[in-house]
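Tokens as discussed.
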């Protein structure tokens, strides 16, 4: 009887020990799981913080780039080659200008001469006959033209013509010289003119008074008047089919920093 009781006691002790071990194992597992969950939470938080820092850095960089682009636009707008001269904007009195002869007694701003020479030479090389008929005009010449024109609406008021800035050239196809007045819409169909309209942007020129922009430029369509604005701006203006007024007004929408 006492032997059986002591066996029972032994079994109970064993059971108790197993129970304790089981509790210990469960506690250890629980502790390890919590630790691992804690670790992955810390890792996750660190990763999120890193991502956030990176995003803040990226946003700051984008903001800086955008500010640099806007600063560049302001800077470009003040460059001589983007000067806006039209009915509302007179040529500034202090506009610095030094002219040189392009050919045949026609003068242009010295800074534009190379580009114009190159454009004419390449047009001729391609087999066409471009001919200058008006480039730089003095205030006196513009005044004379204005005083003697039959149609004052089509002639810029003195001080308001791009020709006075030395940045514009009227170019026609030599084959239209015999037309009497070659400055008509049909000029756009002439071979030299077609070449010029297609390639002018490559030399920094734009067709300044496009078709369907008369309401904005207040100048009739002139498929002969080329204006220097520099290659970068010429490409944007010509490719977007806009006039200089539209470009300068909305330059933020068009100009990408280089
Ligand atoms: Zn002109």
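Sequence:
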């Amino acid at each position: 009887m006492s032997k059986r009781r002591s066996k029972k006691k032994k079994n109970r002790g064993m059971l108790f020990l197993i129970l304790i071990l089981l509790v210990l194992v469960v506690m250890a597992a629980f502790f390890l799981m919590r630790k691992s969950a804690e670790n992955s939470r810390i890792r996750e938080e660190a990763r999120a913080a890193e991502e956030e820092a990176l995003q803040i850095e990226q946003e700051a960089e984008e903001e800086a780039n955008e500010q640099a682009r806007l600063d560049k636009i302001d800077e470009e707008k003040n460059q001589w080659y983007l000067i806006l001269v039209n009915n509302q904007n007179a040529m500034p009195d202090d506009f610095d200008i030094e002219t040189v002869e392009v050919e045949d007694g026609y003068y242009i701003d010295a800074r534009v001469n190379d580009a114009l020479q190159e454009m004419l030479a390449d047009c001729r090389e391609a087999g066409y006959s471009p001919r200058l008929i008006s480039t730089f005009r003095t205030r006196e010449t513009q005044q004379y033209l204005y005083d003697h024109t039959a149609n004052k609406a089509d002639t810029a008021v003195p001080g308001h013509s791009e020709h006075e800035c030395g940045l514009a050239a009227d170019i026609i196809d030599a084959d239209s010289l015999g037309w009497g007045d070659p400055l008509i819409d049909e000029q756009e169909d002439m071979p030299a003119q077609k070449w010029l309209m297609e390639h002018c942007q490559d030399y920094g020129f734009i067709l300044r008074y496009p078709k369907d922009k008369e309401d904005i430029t207040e100048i009739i369509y002139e498929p002969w008047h080329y204006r220097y604005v520099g290659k970068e701006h010429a490409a944007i203006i010509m490719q977007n089919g806009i006039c200089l007024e539209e470009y300068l007004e909305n330059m933020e929408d068009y100009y990408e920093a280089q």
